[in-house]
């Protein structure tokens, strides 16, 4: 993707033609071998990295005037720190092994840089000017040849959201995972909507139902009347949408159960979003046997004279905490309706909330979010807007 993006954009291509060592890493435009002076007035070389603003695979005019710098504090030829542009900071990871030490800031006279060639060369010149006064032969134009990318991205286009907000090192914690979503009804489809925006390697979808007219009213996006006329399966419908963004969508038009449990072999995590108690029971037992972490979701809605009320449940089971599932009956597995969590009435906002809570818990499990509670069972009560967290790691059920 790096080589293709650079070849498609004149401003990026011009940097290569000028002889700069450039690449695209974790959504950042990276330029290496930039000369600068350290505090001892010695010529050193550093790296600058700029967040990329893109419209698909085309660069747009940068909206910022900062870059990240890997190197010591740069100095002028008189030994004075360039603290008008270089901020003191602590080392941080931008993701994909991209380590930086501080931020550089330089606002152009025209308020915005024309393009990325203008932005990057401005910072190179400001850093290199003192170094060239000590050694006139030093240059950032090392003439390095751009090599082909190693590996295929899980995304159909570059993730500029993580780089824009500097959270790439946390996104990396989800990279390479293979995730299963069992059930593509209201909650399952919203789970897919959010997981498709993460760098997991594979997203396996399991469902044997069709996408019908009522499905459109509790699913993300807006299905057209032509979509409904086609009567596609849910797997086909949602795979077609999210494969436009994520390259790792793998659809299975089947009901997952004991007869095809081998489909779990290569999964790292599973979301259960089905309303069959018997189906849940078999899958829960199989995933526990395999040591798979998983999350099961449930929604219950009841009518009152003054409006609907209900609750959203998110139950997590990991190798660190499983006893609560059976001992406290946290996951309904009976054939009849045993609790409000098995009510079949659903509303899109409740589905979206269940999905969001489940995905947040998934991200906590893998370290994307800080996890202080380590809760494995949460219930949101609608009428009082109350969230209850229970079954923490270390507690006995």
Automatic annotation (TrEMBL):
Where does the DUF6791 domain start and stop, copy by copy? Answer: 10-160
Give the highest taxon in the source lineage: Bacteria
What keywords would UniProt list here?
Answer: Nucleotidyltransferase, Transferase
* Entry-linked CDD domains: E1_enzyme_family (cd01483)
A Gene Ontology molecular function term of the record? nucleotidyltransferase activity
Matching Pfam families: DUF6791, ThiF
Q: Where is the THIF-type NAD/FAD binding fold domain?
A: 174-322
* InterPro entries recorded: DUF6791 (IPR046741), ThiF_NAD_FAD-bd (IPR000594), Ubiquitin-activating_enz (IPR035985)
- From the Swiss-Prot or TrEMBL record, give the protein name: ThiF family adenylyltransferase
Q: Which organism is it from?
A: Sphingobium naphthae
